[in-house]
Design goal:
This protein is about 25% helix and about 40% strand. By secondary structure, it is α+β, with helices and mostly antiparallel strands. It has 2 domains: about 1-40; about 60-155, Immunoglobulins (Immunoglobulin-like, Sandwich), CATH 2.60.40. Strand 8 (about 130-140) and strand 9 (about 145-155) form a beta hairpin.
Length: about 160
């Protein structure tokens, strides 16, 4: 019985070593395929020539940060950002993210032709806010700078909520 048990243990140890070896070969094989697939496909030529700037849409804002100054909590204020397309093709705003329910953004014309101006109205509802506020509005577009951020600031006085600072 003792000899049979020892031979069974040795057989199991041998099987475990074989399985470990097979697993290692399998893992390295998969890893090798992943590396090979990352390097496969046609290579794109690298050019040292400057990028041709013609055919780009380009924002130019008269103001990128607007400060409302002191506002009373619950007060609704608005500001219209003016931007000019200084590029050579139409600038199209595809999406806007205000990141906050207290901000509403209205864009009258989401496509601005070269040389033309567009308006982006930002409406801030200060209800429930207190203290110094800095809000970010992100515009997504086909411009040379596809994500453009505008900012509004306010110092919100709230008689109900007071924070000692």
């Amino acid at each position: 019985m003792k000899i049979s048990l020892q031979s069974t243990v040795k057989s199991l140890q041998s099987t475990v070593k074989s399985l470990q070896l097979c697993l290692a070969i399998f893992v390295f094989g998969i890893f090798g395929l992943m590396i090979d697939s990352c390097n496969s496909g046609p290579k794109k030529p690298v050019s040292n020539e400057p990028i041709n700037q013609s055919g780009l849409a380009k924002y130019k804002f008269t103001e990128e940060i607007h400060d409302f100054g002191p506002v009373q909590a619950g007060e609704i204020v608005s500001f219209t950002f003016i931007c000019r397309n200084e590029g050579t093709k139409a600038l199209t705003i595809t999406n806007v993210d205000s990141g906050c329910g207290c901000i509403e953004v209205k864009i009258t014309n989401k496509t601005i032709e070269p040389g033309q101006e567009g308006q982006i109205e930002v409406i801030y509802n200060s209800a429930g806010e207190v203290g110094k506020q800095l809000k970010t509005i992100t515009l997504f577009s086909n411009a040379d700078e596809p994500e453009k951020q505008l900012f509004i600031k306010a110092n919100t006085n709230n008689d109900i909520i007071e924070i000692n600072s």
